[in-house]
Amino acid sequence: MSKLRILDGGMSRELMRLGAELKQPEWSALALINSPDIVRKVHEEFIAAGSEVVTTNSYALVPFHIGDERFRKEGAELIARSGQLAREAADACSDRKVLVAGSLPPIFGSYEPENFDPSRVQDYLKVLVENLNPYIDVWLGETLSLVAEGEAVRTAVAATGKPFWISFTLADNATQRNGSEPKLRSGERVEDAAIWAASSGASVLLFNCSKPEVMRPAVETAARVFKGKGATLEIGVYANAFEGEQGDSAANEGLHDTRDDLNDDVYSRFACSWVEAGATIVGGCCGIGTGHIHRLRQALLG
């Protein structure tokens, strides 16, 4: 079994906790514009909590959030800034090596697979890849709702020669939580996504930004596919803490309420279950903070 690695958690609420202003449409990109020191501080606090991988705050640096005009004029600079801040925080850690993952978000909106445009996606991904590349160790295509988004990331990063991780967001409505076959938010089966991943060249397949309750079946499905194909990909999970149903609203429409029941101990028990099922990389997404990561590391690594 591969060594367990701990990811960071969600960025937005930690930014606000430390005093950054977040509002739509820019959302977490606003902190890069107005409060870059706070962005670096969030990375540092996740590292102090036990994270071995920090993710660049580039998720909202797409026209969906900052608009086409600002993306054309300032996108490259802001993307590079997100990479530099994560790199500085990672390199300042003296007791262990911390990797920087370059966040490549769904270009046309979270949870909105119907908006994916294969004819335009590389135009935007190219800007992200070129400007993050000097600072990152691995690529992380995250919160992807359909396999075609994963393929777009694979294409975009191929020339860099750096490893890439693909993270899909899962359907997590009541039907899925009650044991239905695990699916992506597009409706595609996790089994088919894992089959694609096994031959994609990705080094890790992850599941993120969905309720903790649907993660283990996805891990079990991926582990079964990889074993059957003799694939060596690792499996990772970083769930969110959103309250209620998310299927009818975009993940980034605003600040969703978070669950009161998902405290540090409860989340760490979920994480232990994912590891039991085959995950070797775990962390948190929206609403999972430094306290969760600290407790998760204690539970998994002692």
Automatic annotation (TrEMBL):
Co-factor remark: Binds 1 zinc ion per subunit.
A Pfam family per the record: S-methyl_trans
Residue numbers binding Zn(2+): C209, C285, C286
Hcy-binding domain mapped to chain residues: 1-300
Record-level GO BP terms: methionine biosynthetic process; methylation
Entry keyword set: Metal-binding, Methyltransferase, Transferase, Zinc
Family matches, as InterPro entries: BHMT-like (IPR017226), HCY_dom (IPR003726), HCY_dom_sf (IPR036589)
Protein name: S-methylmethionine-dependent homocysteine/selenocysteine methylase
Organism expressing this protein natively: Rhizobium paranaense
